[in-house]
Design a protein that fits this description.
Structural class: mainly alpha
Largest sheet: 2 strands, antiparallel
Strand order of the largest sheet: 1-2
Strand content: under 5%
Helix content: over 70%
Shape: elongated
Oligomer: single chain
Number of strands: 2
Order of helices and strands: HHHHEE
Radius of gyration: 18 Å
Number of domains: 2
Number of helices: 4
Length: 108
Amino acid sequence: MPDARGVLLATRWCQDPDSPPWARYKTPTTWAALLALPAAHGWSEVADVLVNLEHAIVRAKKAAKRLEDTPQEHNAKLALADAQATLESARSRLQKDTYFAGNELRLV
């Protein structure tokens, strides 16, 4: 019987549009055994936060592109650029602090 947390993490990973295409070559149940240990250590929660950060970064970029070059929207562009930089910094720090210690991958 596959590990339930492993199946949940594998399902999220396989359904994520940013996952590599080869991730979908197998079913989440097949990946569950491999992802059971990372899922048991809370990897799925951290991954959810990273996905939300990625989504917010993409939305900030899209919103900035849609704004006109008018004085009224200049402040909004500045605020979006600042938000994007802050989100990218948070994403980078979370990735480094959570997953990487030197050149080794570690799972929390």
